[in-house]
From TrEMBL, chain A:
Name of this chain's protein: Sugar ABC transporter permease
Isomerase in keyword set: no
Organism: Shinella yambaruensis
Family: Belongs to the binding-protein-dependent transport system permease family.
CDD domains cross-referenced by the UniProt entry: TM_PBP2 (cd06261)
UniProtKB/TrEMBL annotation, chain B:
Claim: Signal is one of the keywords in the record: yes
Domain of life the protein comes from: Bacteria
Classification via InterPro entries: Bact_solute-bd_prot1, SBP
Subcellular location: Periplasm
Leader peptide range in chain numbering: 1-26
Name the UniProt record assigns to this protein: Sugar ABC transporter substrate-binding protein
Source species of the chain: Shinella yambaruensis
Protein's UniProt keywords contain Lipoprotein: yes
Amino acid sequence: MNRSITALAPAPPKAGKKGRLSYKTLRKLVPYLYVTPATLLLVLLMLFPMAMVLRYSLMDGAIMKRDAAFAGLQNYITIFQNPVFWQSLYQTLYFTIMSVVFHFVLGLAFALLLNTNRVNPTIRSILRVLFILPWLFTAVIIAIIWRLLLDPNGVVNSVLMTLHIINFKVEWFSSTSTAIHALTFANIWAGYPLFMVSLLAGLQGISKELYEAAGIDGANELQKFWYITIPQLMPIIISISLLDFIWTMQVFPLVWMTTGGGPIYATEMLSTFTYKLAFAQYEFSLASASAIVILIISMSVTYFYIKHQQRR
Amino acid sequence: MNFRKLSKTLKAAAAVWALCAASAFADTTIEFIQWWEPEMPAGALRGIMDDFEAKNPGIKVTLVSGPYATTRDQIVVGAASGTLSDVVGLDGAWVNGLSKQGAIASMDELMEKANYDKSQIADIVKVDGKSVMFPLASFVYPVFVNMDIAAAAGVETMPSTRSEFAEAAKKMTDASKNQYGWVLPLSLQSPSGIQNDVMSWVWSSGASMMKDGKPDLENEAVVGTLEYIEKLNKDGVISPGIFAKKEQDKVEEFVNGRVGMMVDTLAHVNLIRERNPKLNFSISALPAADGYTGKRGMPYASWGIGISEGSAHKEEAWKLVEFLMSPEVNGRLVSIANAFPGNVHAKPDFVTSDPIFAEAFKIYQSGYPANEFVGLPVAEELMRNMNVELQKMFDGGQSAKDAAANTQKAWLAKF
């Protein structure tokens, strides 16, 4: 390691030249030079836009007014006084928590199925492809698929009516009582493969000896699952759950392309609420304040993620 | 390669580079952002630009094209960051916001400088007295009727009044066959259904939603229209799934023969024919309130054109606007796009060759183009406000009167 730094560091300066850094100082600078490109990119592409949004959120009529003035926390007060914001926040949390929980449950169930030796290897290979399919579709395709399936004249209603489970055409995305659940369901379907793939990799890494030892001690399958599988998978479960929480909270395309936040405000999420403020009302300051709120919620989850990573 | 040969090669390369660079710097390149190119046959708009470049040596046009929604977002961001293209394709719904933001220029001075004959322009959209947009091509919205469904239901004449329309819609509805009389798209993602499918009923009866430049939504005509549409919904003649339906879903249902009637743009005629060549359909003017005999307002949407305030090449941009608005080019463009011209002297060829367009032209000439959302502040948001209130009305949460009153309240806050 020392040898490579020495090799990369410039040669010792000639003695007697004024204004040039000493060899010792240059050597100290080398590590910083290594991280400079990444730091510059981080500042330009992440910190600068974030600082701009924060600045806009403290201004009155940012972007739209040439003489936009400092407005303090007024934009935050305005959005906090908007009942649609609180409804969006509640619905975002419902959508996110339900999605993460079911992503985990489905992901784990499918990962266990793909990991077991009790299923024929050919069938397992076919299932592996089938189960991962939703992950290959873009949000647009997912939105189109579910809009067609859940159309009042769509396949889902047709099947449910044939089975006499329902006796009228449910307007899944058009009814205030079903829209949020239909949307969450579509998102669960679209997102479980992330858990499935990660947990499957985790399952394959668990030592078989642990199960053999447990078997000798007389543990049944449920006990093995509870006392070996789950603890062994816990680091992956926590990491993926936190990441999934952050990503799901910011979901925009699926919501926008299926319901647009409606009917009324039944599926309004913080992302659609913010988008409408910016691109329909041209209230960029309010939109920035709303975006900062999303950032704070995401960062609070990120804090737990970092803490968890540090503990590991 | 010896040194002399290398030197010669380098000199030749330098000469070629200098020549290219000189010609590149000699040309003025202007950007033209719009959503029209993807909606026209491949290469059609570029061909018109090539003709412009041939007639105006020294000016090159770069087309910045994308779908409608993407273009709108790009224009909003470009206006905010001061990087808006020189020539801008505009929708009437955006004009007020962009003008107030100082993003689009007044064309009055440019017209004056060029001694431009304003009388040849069918309509000039003004904000605060400044001419900021010319509708280049207008797409009117008549009622499309599936003639086979109509004939099977015993509807013999095209509905001309609201009562006739309601009656025809009832006859055409057969829920057991998933067949409905009318389709109404009220998705919040794109709330243009309010303009095209709801308020158009007000304008077709010669009424208005505005008074002295302010919203007037509690008037009898608007409330009456909302009550009429609510009644259609209660009668079960509207295809289900209203709140999640978008314009493309509406067209899809009509193409598939699942609805008997829809209010739609003439721009979709070719699309409908392509999707279902066997579909037997016709068009008629939007029905008016019973007993109304005056001229009928016909809803329309435009491909508008304007110039960016931040453009460093306003004169060149004006030349392009002038070129596109000229009778010959405007006629050519609207013939390709199946639209009505922005220049009163332009003659699109489709009105004589196609019976549907001939009928549309007749309707167009017997009425007047009406779209009161053009030039209103945050027009799309106004539509969305009304959309939410209408959804509450359809959901049984409020009456038509309350929906109108609540929309009025929301709109006044935006004016």
